[in-house]
Amino acid sequence: MTAAGSRTVGGVTVVPSVIEGAFRFEPAVYPDSRGLFSSPYQDAAFAEALGRPLFPVRDVSHNRSARGVLRGIHYTATPPGRAKYVYCPYGEVRDYLVDLRVGSPTYGRWEMTELSGDNCRALYIPVGVGHAFLSLRDDSVVVYVMSEGYVPANELAVSPLDPAIGLPIPDDLEIQQSDRDRAAPTLAEARERGLLDDYDLCRNVEAKLWR
Fold this sequence. Notes:
single chain; mainly beta; Jelly Rolls; seven-stranded antiparallel beta sheet; five-stranded antiparallel beta sheet
């Protein structure tokens, strides 16, 4: 086991996050002279974590980022909300989950995970939980498997540089952000403006994904 409460199912270690309802998946990786093989998603491991297989998939997307690109903290207004399953098949990123659900027992907490094409780790991100990552290598690719399609008006952001959140951003990288992310409000500002969603609402919307 790699952490308290973790368990291994079919070669995948399932690790509960410090963020309520989120999980990390660490699949077996099989390297050889040709490269490597791994399965970042397996039904049995996901069902062990959440009691059911992956949500019905509505959108699969990916991005490619230069070293130093910082994306997020992104989340989707609820409803509709979006649950996400995320992994990095190429390159390396420092991935951050931030609980933005007002009333959550882990509201305001964050967790960092190194995702890469070498470790093949994946993350389940519940509805209402914010996601960000920092690319540590050029051409890092992050894949998103999502429960809902992309609607620009529903996509929101909180500043990843908000000192009250305190994400550990390395000092030795020249950070690149989109205009949207640079202008994103702090967590406190987003809450004051009513831009954050209620924990119970997010959990109820998430439960309905499988109905």
